């Protein structure tokens, strides 16, 4: 499912216009993004949680040349599904 399909489903289920549903979805995405920037955890009970994780610097391999290269440390976002989501996937 892509964003336009999700917007249409939200509009239908919540009895909103597609524009209102798109604004609501954009607001949710913006708030999750801002929370990740502040290094906060976002918990959506029953759905899951988003957290920021640090990846340490490491040595990798250039796939074209095969020579070793240093990969710098970085941050990433991790998602841990909640029980209800796990149960829905494993029906």
Arithmetic mean of pLDDT? 95
As laid out across the biggest beta sheet, the strand order is 1-2-5
Our estimate of the beta-strand percent is: 25-35%
Give the full name of the CATH homologous superfamily of the largest domain: IHF-like DNA-binding proteins
Molecular structure report:
- The chain has helices at 3-14, 18-37, 83-89, and strands spanning 42-44, 48-55, 58-61, 68-71, 74-81.
- It has 91 residues and is an alpha+beta fold.
- The protein is built from three helices and five strands.
- The chain has two domains: 1-39; 41-91, Irregular (HU Protein, Chain A), CATH 4.10.520.10.
- It is elongated, with a radius of gyration of 18 Å.
- The strands form two sheets. It has a three-stranded antiparallel sheet.
- Helix 1 (3-14) packs across helix 2 (18-37).
- Strand 3 and strand 4 (68-71) form a beta hairpin.
- Keywords: DNA condensation, DNA-binding.
